[in-house]
Amino acid sequence: MTPIDVSQLEVTLTEGDRWRRTLSVTVPAAVVEAEKGAITRQLASRLKVKGFRSGKVPAAVIQKRYGAHVEREALDQLIRDAYKEAVSSQELSPISEGEIEDVSFSPEEPLSFRVSFDVRPEIQIERLGGFKAEKPATRVPDDAVHQVLDRLRDQQAVWVSAEEGHPGSGDRVVVELHRLDGEGEEAEPKEYEFTLGEGNAIPDVEAAIQTLTPGSEDEFDISFPEDFPDEDRRGEAQRIRIQLLTRQVKELPELSDEFARAVGDFEDLPALRSKVEEDLEKDAERQAEGAVRNQLLDSLLAANPFEVPQSMVDGYLDSVIGDAQGLDPEKLADLKGKLQPEAETAVKRMILIDRITEQEGLKATEDDIDARVEEIAERAEESPSKVYANLQKSGRLASLEQDLTEEKLFEFLKSQSEISEAP
């Protein structure tokens, strides 16, 4: 297609309420005709028209047969290109989809249109410090290490068959279910395998299974709960026959040096305990630091109030909700409504962080990045160049830069306020 030179355009910027901007754009008739000509030539080169050799269809024939299509495609392309160039010429960065309106065009006349969009709010930071924040205690609870070790044991557990006894929560069972009609006739039986206590079956069925022993069967009257996914079956009563085919229980490994070596690269159990405790302490420190950051951001927002475009909030909600987009419109609207306050705060925080970073010159430098890469390389026992290349290849370099920038930002903010530690 024919490139547009911004000098060919007539562009007028109108600043609306707060962050709303409108561009009025006019594209000269000559540019429109050039675009139509380019599209016509492209069609002529690939269309097969009876009576003409391939690639040799006259432009007049293309115009006669496909003129409306050529014009529509030319105008669509020109509006997209002109919008992009006009935005660039005004040094604007839209944060919402451009709303095209008032498109006007007649043959051999200029093309004109208006496009409206939101831009990022320009905020003024009047107060950066003088706040108070309390860092929560980072002590690791005595039972926290035991809980982690228990989870590791659970991950290393093996399933063993239990020929006797009633199954309980956490046991894995295989059952055969028969639905019975009013006369006691059985529908085709179905076999299921699942772990009790994980919500895989309705409560009445789980309770019934726990009365059986391997190899036994019985009939039960069960009711479907009111929150059952199939609305038509909620509250429905059903008589069923259940046979417990097998029961398996978890066999947990003993806490020992052998267990520690099976979990990872640990010499003995004390080494594993030490690593677990170290990780818990680091996690507690991260959470405490996060709490301080949240307090400072809340104080900053309270001291420097501002509004944000709904388009930014909507964009944030779309990114957070993700897979929930499959909900019906009413439920989706209800979910967005519930998340609206949280989304507004999140967007304000992002804008605030970006503005302070820019205002105070806190963006991570190449030296900052190089220093962090060297730290990572030393811990991983690899060369800095290899670590850098891996970060670049995986697309994580930008994330590292953002993390470093935020670290510098919050160190700066803490230096401007009073941070106490909880007893």
Report on the structure:
The strands form 3 sheets. Strands 6, 7, 8, 9 and 10 form a 5-stranded antiparallel beta sheet that branches. Helix 1 (29-46) packs across helix 2 (59-89), helix 5 (257-263) packs across helix 6 (269-303) and helix 7 packs across helix 8. The radius of gyration is 33 Å and the shape is extended. It has helices spanning 29-46, 59-89, 144-155, 203-209, 257-263, 269-303, 310-321, 329-360, 366-380, 384-394, 397-415, and strands at 10-15, 20-27, 99-104, 111-118, 132-135, 158-161, 172-180, 190-195, 217-223, 237-251, 418-421. It is α+β, with helices and mostly antiparallel strands and 423 residues long. The protein has 3 domains: 6-118, 2-Layer Sandwich (Alpha-Beta Plaits); 158-251, Chitinase A, domain 3 (Roll), CATH 3.10.50; 268-421, Trigger factor, domain 2 (Orthogonal Bundle), CATH 1.10.3120. The chain is built from 11 helices and 11 strands. Strand 3 (99-104) and strand 4 (111-118) form a beta hairpin.
Distance between the termini: 69 Å
Number of helices: 11
Taking pLDDT < 50 over at least 5 consecutive residues as the criterion, the unreliable ranges are none
Q: Kindly estimate the percentage of residues that lie in beta strands according to DSSP.
A: 15-25%
Largest sheet: 5 strands, antiparallel
Taken in chain order, the helices and strands follow as EEHHEEEHEEEHEEHHHHHHHE
| Count of structural domains | 3
